[in-house]
Target: Triosephosphate isomerase
Amino acid sequence: MRQHLVMGNWKLNGTKASVEALINGLTPAAAAHPSVQVAVCPPVIFLGLVEQLTAGSKIAYGAQNADVHESGAFTGENAPSMLKAFGCTYSLVGHSERRTLHAETDDVVAAKYEAIQKGGLVPVLCIGETLEQFEAGVTKNVVETQLKAVIVRCGIASFANAVVAYEPVWAIGTGKTATPEIAQSVHAHIRQYLAGFDAAIAAKVQILYGGSVTGATAADLFGQPDIDGGLVGGASLKVDDFSQIIAGAAK
Model:
């Protein structure tokens, strides 16, 4: 049985005070639902603070991005090993905002995924389609292409130590959410596609849904057989909302 994972992506948000209040507020919620893995991805500048605040709790954390290089003249970047040194378990890779705003191609995402694993972190591979692609009915083709780039570079075995997050771009920050049935259909297809390479790995990999998850929608989404939790945006910045999502993921 795959354990549910609820991960908050804080994006470019937070202050020292709000981070402290948020972690302190989420710690009891995480402890109250031991069947759910809870993680947060703060802006990198807050990682040291999050490391201190989560000590002794069951809240894991990760980065929102990582570079392919371990060192060098790459101003503004952070190596996976640096993130690991601050206690990170995860790093997001291929988030739609990185793909669109920073022009990260499938090949770039695959290279970062590889570097993240080599650096000792668990990559959370974000895949998903735009509204135009959704309306054109090519969602399954898009996610297959995004997955294939990683499989070609890193092999299917790499997914034994990775998380996949399906994020329909049209449902991020818009208030729109794919129905549980639509989301389940895509999640099932992702698992089926991976199973074509290795059925055992496909059966074990956690596939999260990312797209305006709320406390009201969490239970129905996470109750689907192939949805193993959520990559949560705006709601992860509010203690009450994120706590409700954690509760919704509890089995």
The first helix runs from residue 16 to 32.
